[in-house]
Amino acid sequence: MKQLPALLLTFSMCALPLAPALSAEAAATPGHAAVRDGGSEAANKQQITRLYQLMGADPQAAGRLFAHDLIQHDPQLADGRDAITRWIAGLGRQVWTVKHMLAERDLVFVHAHLGESAADEWHGNNRYDLYRLDRGLVVEHWAVTAPAPQRSANGNSAFSDVYHYTGGAPATDPARVELNRLLARSLSEDVFGKRQFGLLDRFWASGYLQHNPYVANGRAALASVLPYIAPPGASYRVMHAMADGDLALVCAHAADPGANPDAPFSGTAVCDLYRMVNYEMVEHWDVAQAIPGSSVNGHAMFGSLYGKHRQGHD
């Protein structure tokens, strides 16, 4: 049996408080502050909820929720408020339906269906959008998107919630949420980056519920395709990891065997969303987008630039 990393051994033994391990991991994560403010996170969620309400009703009002000097990572859009406002207006009568929303510190993640009908989850677009907010305005934006799959090996759409708690969802205290984030990140790196496939037996539920259209439900189905998802020599680098409630998000830059993993305008942008119960993966959604060789804004799809441009936005 392969030896697990110290952090994962702590999880596997259902250990007591992990303050030292958490502090070390947080310190090793660039830009990841040690303290969360539930009040500001709730306010940020409320602001992004308002954004999605306005995008279909009043694009100009929606645009005013972005900073004038918005830093844009969506490769099809230029920097700035004007470009994203024009893009929103150009969507016409398409309907935004928020499926999942996570907030952590100054970031809000939204998993949404964009299409002609909210009821038709088998057409339209599967969108994973990440927003950084400062003083109520969106100052930085990332997006990974793909067409919604029209059929699925597991029978689930890319958006539905299938897992059901017995007796209702339990409360998730801040320590557990942070552990979920650390575990999701560490497992993603170890399984997809280091090919430690044996970890599935410990941290993935046997009845794992799948929304990736190419993989059937169940841990065994995932195990059968992992050698193809993470072939020898491939690169997998986590760029964002966050958690809220029982959900954890991991976004990564993946590169094929032989490709340069440090080339920002090549490879694949991948985001995985997990539902975690008792430190076990029970449900999974994802999206993948080929990274274009250039972008309208000149920025890579991943990376955080706002810390270098903190002054002068409004």
UniProtKB/TrEMBL annotation:
Q: Which organism is it from?
A: Pseudoduganella ginsengisoli
Record flagged with keyword Cell cycle: no
**Protein name per Swiss-Prot or TrEMBL:** SnoaL-like domain-containing protein
SUPFAM superfamilies recorded: NTF2-like
Q: Which InterPro entries match?
A: NTF2-like_dom_sf (IPR032710), SnoaL-like (IPR037401)
Start and end residues of each SnoaL-like domain: 57-141
Indicate whether Amino-acid biosynthesis appears among the record's keywords: no
> Which UniProt key words apply to this protein?
Signal
Q: Which residues form the signal peptide?
A: 1-26
